[in-house]
Amino acid sequence: VIILAAGRRRRLGDKFGWQSRARHGCAVVVVVHAAHAPAALMGLSVLIATRVGMGMGEAVTFPSIYSLYSRWIPLAERSRAVAIANSGIPLGTVFALVATPYIVQAWGWEWAFYSFGLVGVVWFVVWQRTVTASPDTHAGIDAAELALIQIDSPAERPARPKWGEFFSKMPVWAIIVAHFCNNWSLYVLLSWLPTFVNKGLGVDYGSVGWVTMIPHIASFVMLNVAGNVADRMIKSGMDVGRVRKICQTIGFGGIAGALSIVGEVDSVWMAITIMSIGNGLGAFVTGGFAVNHMDIAPKHAGTLMGITNTAGTIPGIIGVSVSGLILQQTGSWALVFQVAAGVTLFGLLFYLLFSSGKKLID
Fold it and tell me: Fewest C-beta in 10 Å: which of 10, 63, 263, 359?
């Protein structure tokens, strides 16, 4: 709900600055993350409320950042920009997997929350000092760079479109469905891959973090490769819609292929190799649906991201729960991952049929 509202209130962001909403949202995340330690000592209900507060802070960030992309990044560089930013997600995951056990061992579990909260404070200060609402107000930008950016930059305060303008267009639904299906596999892997490695493949619990970080490293590397490949195809003159579909096919096809077979193998390193290849190919969605918002609605990318990211959060509840139910009823890890593969393939088919690279909402 908060994500959807964040996207819908993009007009407010235009008035007061998208960077203000992103800044405030991240400030909430930083404070609430650090508050997890005392909240856990106060009881389960307080901890749950803290988690809800963190989600509310996170909800405004992606819509705000997509408004940033539209204002700052030329069309032929957007895949790369999204890739660079999104590559921070697996990089942060790897860092947390490696650093957290040492932090807990040295200072106690509470500092697993306090320390990352302090990192967030440092980020907040840097953001506050360096980021501006639009390129033309940034002190460090030169005239040539500003002119290049403004070719594809949307109007400063575009009129707010009606909901029907979004939901009546099938390319919008193509992104919504792709976002849902992408996050189904994402949340299933985040939630269940460590358990699969530990209980399904027999890896010692203390080594699980080191083993499961390898696919995240593959994601980090390949996100930046994929973003560059997509932008090079666009710069070569290839149709934007075709580029999006090619990248989506590589991305969803790769992760679906990996998911369909990973549950059938008994070797730890074979499973991790398969998932690393799957994650690496899956990174190509950064040149597919993940940047498609700015193609079809460049002036309203934040609003559209709010809509699609709302759909993208649903698998965090449904996908994880369904996977747990499958595991409970059948004991089959293969079936858990194959269901995720099926969802991913459905998302690919829907996207190929209905997506577009043309501007549809002005």
Answer: 359
Q: Is 82 left (phi over 0), alpha (psi -120 to 50) or beta?
A: alpha
Could you list the beta-strand ranges (E) of 14-157: none
> What would the mean pLDDT of 290-313 be, rounded to a whole number?
90
Average pLDDT value over all residues in the chain: 86
Q: How far apart are CA 353 and CA 170, in angstroms?
A: 9
Q: Is residue 5 scored above 80 in pLDDT?
A: no
pTM value is 0.85
DSSP class per residue in 267-301: -HHHHHHHHHHHHHHHGGGGGTHHHHHHHH-GGGH
Q: Using CB atoms within 10 A of its CB, is residue 189 exposed (0-12), middle (13-18) or buried (19+)?
A: buried
Alpha carbons 249 and 244: distance in angstroms, whole number: 9
Nearest CA among 353, 355, 347 for reference residue 182:
347
DSSP-assigned states of every residue in 1-52? -HHHHHHHTHHHHHHH-HHHHHHHHHHHHHHHHHTHHHHHHH-HHHHHHHHH
Per-domain residue ranges for the chain? 2-153+161-354
CATH architecture of 2-153+161-354: Up-down Bundle (1.20)
